[in-house]
Amino acid sequence: MPVMRLRPSRAPGRRAAALRAACAALAWLGVAAMGAQAQSTVVPPDAPGFTEYVASQLRQQLGDATVVVREPLTLGIASERTPLDKLYAACQGNRSHCADDVNAFVKTRTQAFRAATIPATRETLRLAVRTAASVQQAQREVGGDATTFRPRPFVGPLVTVPVFDTLRASRLISEKDYKTLNLSVDQVRETARKNTYDSMPQVLQTAKPAAPGEVGKLDGPVPQPSRLVFIDDWKPLADAQKGKLIVAAPSNDTVLYVGDDDAATIDALRAQVREIMGKSANPLTDVLLRWSPSGWTVMP
Hints:
Layout: E1 3-5, H1 13-40, H2 47-62, E2 67-71, E3 74-77, E4 80-83, H3 85-93, H4 98-116, E5 125-131, H5 132-141, E6 152-155, E7 158-165, E8 170-172, H6 175-181, H7 185-199, H8 203-206, E9 214-219, H9 235-240, E10 246-251, E11 254-258, H10 263-279, E12 288-292, E13 295-298
Antiparallel strand pairs: 1-9, 2-3, 3-4, 5-7, 6-7, 7-8, 9-11, 10-11, 10-12, 12-13
């Protein structure tokens, strides 16, 4: 996986000038293309046209048979009634942001639909790392109590919780799912832990040791923060970094790490954490964790 340096390398002489010119040209082309794309995305201002436009965006993600127009500003996603009145009002209030608002709505609805339709199977069980606050919010949304999704403390604000995960989406396990699986709470957690471990390559197979002043990154389709559960798997990376390993999990698909605790390195790590959390649809935590053979500890 990539390791990001704090200082960019410099190409000498004419090569550097040529490189700068090429980068400038590519940057200009990228901006021009983005501008053209933004201009070509025109969301219809009338309610029927707006409704059909949103439906067409959702159909691209979920299929034609899943999404139907019931009436202006009301869609049907499978058997669920999905009103668009608030989204339409936001678009009418700020037309310049309308396309972005629709894209965000489509992404959120797509994720929710895919999560809700994940079947309860033993094969898709995984052990996820979440914040206690996010699990509590999910419990409130379904009218449950503090034990509804069976979270267990992990470190700092983080908990571990069993989920069904298909890489495209994940969902928390409900009481009904335990009955469907015919497994006890401990059996579900044990199966989820084993499946998670088996689905991930060893840390050093994907993580390059970070030199002093560098920030390493683990990302990809698997839920990277779940790696933190397996403390022993991080030992080879810590050993390669002279016993020092500090990590952050800014989103559900990213873990950052460094091999020294110099102030400048920690500042660079925190800056990247803030940037990723600000852009991610699924931010996790800004907490930094220090590795030791006995477990993770929260850095002040």
